[in-house]
Specification:
- The structure is a single chain.
- This protein is mainly α.
- The longest helix is centred in the middle third of the chain and has 74 residues.
- The protein is elongated.
- Keywords: Coiled coil.
Length: 76
């Protein structure tokens, strides 16, 4: 009889856990569109930042190349 009560208790806990899991899955699915929207906004901002900084990075690289050439010439 005691074993039967333990099994019943375990089944109730399992049922409660499954119910909680279903609720959490529903919450996650409800939050998914907002997360996807946030990710796309971040990706857009990163692309915008890269677009704006790329010309500066190119100029910096040119300057570094010129300085390296000058440095190499001075060593000779």
């Amino acid at each position: 009889m005691q074993r039967l009560k333990e099994i019943q208790t375990s089944l109730r806990k399992l049922s409660n856990n499954v119910t909680q899991l279903q609720e959490n899955i529903s919450d996650l699915q409800a939050a998914l569109p907002a997360v996807a929207n946030f990710v796309s906004e971040v990706e857009r901002d990163v692309k915008k930042w890269q677009f704006k900084t790329q010309p500066r990075l190119n100029r910096i690289q040119i300057i570094l190349d010129v300085l390296k050439i000058d440095s190499d010439e001075q060593k000779k």
